[in-house]
Amino acid sequence: MGIVEIKGLTKDYEGVRAVDNLSLEIEKGEIFALLGPNGAGKTTTIKSMLGLIFPTAGEIKINGFDVLKEGKKAKENIGYLPERVAFYDNLTAIQTMEFYAELRGADRKECIELLMDVGLDGEMDKKVGNYSKGMMQRLGLAQAMIGNPSLLILDEPTGGLDPRGSWQIRQKIKELNENGTTIFLSSHILSEVQEVSSRVAILNHGKLIEVDTLDNLGKKLDLQPTLVIELQRPSQSILSRVKQVKGVDSAELSGNVIKVRCNPRVKTNIINAIEDEGGKILDFRTVEPSLEEVFLKFTEDD
Amino acid sequence: MDGRAIYAISKKEFMDNWRNKWIIAVSAIFLLLTLVISYFGSMGAGGVGWRDIDATIVGMITLVTLLVPIIGLMLGYATIVGEKEKGSLELMLSYPVERIEILTGKLFGLGAVMAAATFIGFGVAGIIIALNVKGVQWGNYMVFVLASILLGFVFISIAMLFSAIFKKRSAAMGGAVFLWFLFEMIWNVVIAGVLTAQYGIEKLTDPNFMAPSWYYVASLINPVKAYSALVSLSISSVNELAGNIPSFVNVPFSLAILLSWMAGTFALTWYIFNKKDL
Lengths: 302, 278
Fold this sequence. Notes:
The complex is a heterodimer. By secondary structure, chain A is of the alpha/beta class. Chain A folds into two domains: about 5-220, P-loop containing nucleotide triphosphate hydrolases (Rossmann fold), CATH 3.40.50; about 225-300, Alpha-Beta Plaits (2-Layer Sandwich). Chain A contains eleven helices and 14 strands. Chain A has helices at about 40-50, 70-75, 95-105, 110-115, 135-145, 165-180, 190-195, 215-220, 235-245, 265-275, 290-300, and strands at about 5-15, 15-25, 30-35, 55-60, 65, 80, 150-155, 180-185, 200-205, 205-215, 225-230, 250-255, 255-260, 280-285. In chain A, the strands form three sheets. A six-stranded mixed beta sheet of chain A has the order 6-7-8-3-9-10, sandwiched between helices. In chain A, strand 9 (about 200-205) and strand 10 form a beta hairpin. By secondary structure, chain B is mostly helical. Chain B has one domain (about 5-275). Helix content of chain B is about 80%, strand content about 0%. Chain B is built from 13 helices and no strands. In chain B, helix 6 packs antiparallel against helix 7. At the A-B interface, helix 2 and helix 3 of A face helix 1 and helix 5 of B.
């Protein structure tokens, strides 16, 4: 039995089908990512899991409890970080945490610990109304962890954060998962999901396109990033040398730029190869395959 | 239903709203107006001076019927739609709470803010009056204060219904303003209009004219009027002034009307909120 079981979930909003016959099962201990562009039905799925909206059809069980019929029991062990975090302006951070601890029936003592854990040590007695966006996101994460829930549902957890902030969140997700928490997260950015998740479901226009482990998806999709390397004096000899590097699928030269499709792990080898051949690198960046490319790939297969 | 969740939500509502400066302002306004009415209320009858509690209450009734509904509506109109617009409502409901517990907690918490402002404002005023007049009828004053709080609860509950129905905070606010005008003015004007159409102006101005029962019922269904009747009829000295009114216009009926408004709108709010996608 999975910790989350979604069967035939369908939701219509005023005639528009937001989620179409979605079935998913999430196992204990996974980091499961729901991936799709904006409007794919990710938030609708998450809201259905929490009993916030009423599905047109289908049923959802969490820890074996039906979310609508036994909502209290189903939600006892869920922590949730919404896409848009919002609290009560006149309460301080610690009062906010204590409110949620009371709702969960958790020990109020852990509130201070959790606030320190997310780096809000010095800001606990400030009114949340004066918080910055980044601080709100931290407080959001802290409240989701109250009572050490067995399932964390994170809706676009790194949305709107700077690279450092989103790195911290990803570290936190990994850490929580190592301590036994099952994580269900949604994202529209493939690379963010790639780094943390064990299994990925791809959703588009409310329909489940594919659900598999990342490795399998990678094989099916050829999800390799492209390295874009700008050189001072590119040459055919550099290009052919790059092509010889193990793990490189293809490489092409256009103008001053070499584009290499390869396994991301061989980046350093490629750089070394270029420098061995006497090339001088001016600029270097990695372009992840976009979700749109992924969807295109799947529709081609159909 | 679970007392723990209701208590947590009530407390949150109280803390979040109590810190609004205007609530403190409301207490101060109650205090000042009570003192002004008590001291200057008899100016027309020659000279100023402290009047006893009963006379003060009579002077306060109209004021309370204007102010308390505004406060109740202001406290309640945004409590659901505002939290939904912000996003905090979905977070609260992701916790193991039922929707009925959220509504109950909100009603109690907002009602407590209202009650605290009323108690402080009228309480301090009552003590000041008591220091200046002899033989204070504390029982009557208590009835007046409690009835005013009940009126506040009624309007919070009505405002919560609007807050559950409307999709936008601004629309709920418009609805609240309309309700205030409805109960303070439109209601009376409409039934007075119907009465005039039925009997004609001349008959109405006849001092011996007795309005029909439906007029009293229609008038009393208005919670603002039910409150006035409840307070006036509960206080004996005022009761004697009541004159020729039908016997069903009494304390239990007025109280029942106020409680029905509160329970009825609350039940309707629950019915609507329970089916709502958040």
